[in-house]
Automatic annotation (TrEMBL):
Reactions it catalyzes: meso-2,6-diaminopimelate + H(+) = L-lysine + CO2
Positions with a binding annotation for pyridoxal 5'-phosphate: 239, 273-276, 370
Chain positions recorded as substrate binding sites: 276, 312, 316, 343, 370
Gene name linked to the record: lysA
Keywords, alphabetical: Amino-acid biosynthesis, Decarboxylase, Lyase, Lysine biosynthesis, Pyridoxal phosphate
Protein name (database record): Diaminopimelate decarboxylase
Function comment: Specifically catalyzes the decarboxylation of meso-diaminopimelate (meso-DAP) to L-lysine.
Domain Orn/DAP/Arg decarboxylase 2 N-terminal: 35-280
Top-level taxon of the source organism: Bacteria
CDD domains: PLPDE_III_DapDC
EC number: 4.1.1.20
Natural source organism: Entomomonas moraniae
Pfam families in the cross-refs: Orn_Arg_deC_N
Residue numbers annotated as active site: 342 (proton donor)
Length: 415
């Protein structure tokens, strides 16, 4: 069941009226449901019962340390792409030995720190990176656990900006070169080959691309085994989609069952890196209508949230459900919901049939993933507050930024 429901025409986050949260913390504010996060994570966990597995939540989807802490306490590992994310995981009580380190551009500092704290595995994306990890590990007198991220050339059938497993994408190692590069990795003294990794894209709504990629990885695994290179784990990345509008993506149980069927008779442990699936529908962004502006061609509702708070509509033309916090029985009108930023692309929704009055609160749904995490200070806008609801309790997990903090690290020239 959704964590956000209407009761007597008023939107609730779990058991708390959203209007009460907006009154207390102001707008725009991100509101998350703890229950939804826990349920989504557990659906992965339950489906993996009886296997050796690690579920590494993709920190980039929502990196607030309160959320990382909830997941760490449930036993989650973490998929990270920077030292910044690593430090967040550690600050949140996550265990280094349950961290996988992804990303095409790991810096010296990233790798050194990851080796220092002892991450579970580096998902390596190029030969140059293998060499860099080898040389740092050698200097530190360590052995670095690695997987190669394979680019299997599978069409994930998602938005081109979030598709990562096609041969023209910058991600991973071309599957045609993988055997040779594994053989090379095996010659490097300070590397320890652990597994095979793959992540073909985000917001996948069918199983076929996942299973096509899996089949290709299994062929590769068999070839490597024949060459004496042992693969302990298979990391299938993240990517499982959620419902924003009318999509009907498979749930974790269906996905994992299909994967498990393909792995019968094999001694491979499983690793997943879900992000969106865990947090997208655990969050809404609440915003207040500042102005209504009717022109000859369009009606605009100008709200206090903008593309700096939630960039998905501007960046991917992503459709996100927008609804009033208090439902009214009036005649709806067509609106574009836009922010105050000086960009034509600053919209949150277009051509929505809604009943809106000046000063109303609107909720933008499915905003828990890649919402706050992708926010910025563009137009010198302080970033939104974040709160988590747990039953009937509300916890502030990030203060609204202060204006002074926006230029606190800047310096005037000497006079
Ligand atoms: C390597 C890697 N793992 C996991 C994820 C998480 O993806 P999603 O949020 O679609 O589950 C991403 C982002 O797409 C990624 O790049
Ligand atoms: N930021 C994207 C997902 C990218 C996933 C990162 N690999 C989105 O909002 O849909």
């Amino acid at each position: 069941m959704s964590a956000f429901t209407y009761q007597a025409n008023q939107l609730y986050a779990e058991n708390v009226p959203v209007i009460a949260i907006a009154d207390q913390f102001g707008t725009p504010t991100y509101i998350y449901s703890k229950k939804h996060i826990v349920e989504q994570f557990k659906s992965y966990q339950d489906s993996l019962q009886g296997t050796t597995n690690l579920i590494c939540y993709a920190v980039k989807a929502n990196s607030n340390i309160a959320i990382l802490n909830i997941l760490a306490e449930l036993g989650a590992g973490f998929d990270i792409v920077s030292r910044g994310e690593l430090e967040r995981v550690l600050a949140a009580g996550g265990k280094a030995n349950k961290v996988v380190f992804s990303g095409v551009g790991k810096s010296f500092d990233d790798i050194t720190r990851a080796l220092e704290v002892g991450v579970y595995c580096f998902n390596v994306e190029s030969v140059n990176e293998l060499d860099r990890i080898q040389s740092i590990a050698e200097k530190m007198g360590k052995k670095a656990p690695i997987s190669l991220r394979i680019n299997p050339d599978v069409d994930a059938k998602t938005h081109p900006y979030i598709s990562t497993g096609l041969k023209e994408n910058k991600f991973g190692i071309d599957i045609a070169q993988a055997e040779r590069i594994y053989e090379y990795a095996a010659t490097l003294q300070n590397l320890d080959i652990k597994g095979i990794d793959c992540h073909i894209g985000s917001q996948l709504t069918t199983l076929d691309p996942f299973l096509d990629a899996l089949d290709r990885l299994l062929v590769l695994t068999d070839k490597l085994t024949q060459k004496g290179i042992t693969i302990e784990h298979l990391d299938l990345g993240g990517g499982l989609g959620v419902c924003y509008n009318d999509e009907k993506p498979p749930v974790a149980q269906e996905y994992i069952q299909a994967v498990r069927e393909r792995l019968v008779g094999r001694d491979l442990s499983l690793l997943f890196e879900p992000g969106r699936y865990i947090v997208a529908n655990a969050g809404i962004l609440v915003t207040r209508v500042e102005y209504l502006k009717d022109t000859v061609h369009k009606n605009f509702a100008i709200v206090d949230a903008a593309m700096n708070d939630l960039i998905r509509p501007a960046l991917y033309e992503a459709w996100m459900n927008i609804q009033p916090v208090i439902q009214k029985q009036e005649q709806p009108k067509q609106y574009d919901i836009v922010g105050p930023i000086c960009e034509t692309g600053d919209f949150l929704g277009k051509d929505r049939s809604l009943i809106i009055n000046k000063g109303d609160l609107l909720a933008i749904f499915s905003a828990g993933a890649y919402g706050f995490a992708m926010s910025s200070n563009y137009n010198s806008r302080a970033r939104a507050a974040e709160v988590i609801v747990d039953g009937n309790k509300v916890h502030l997990i990030r203060d609204r930024e202060t204006l002074a903090s926006l230029y606190a690290n800047e310096h005037l020239l000497p006079h």
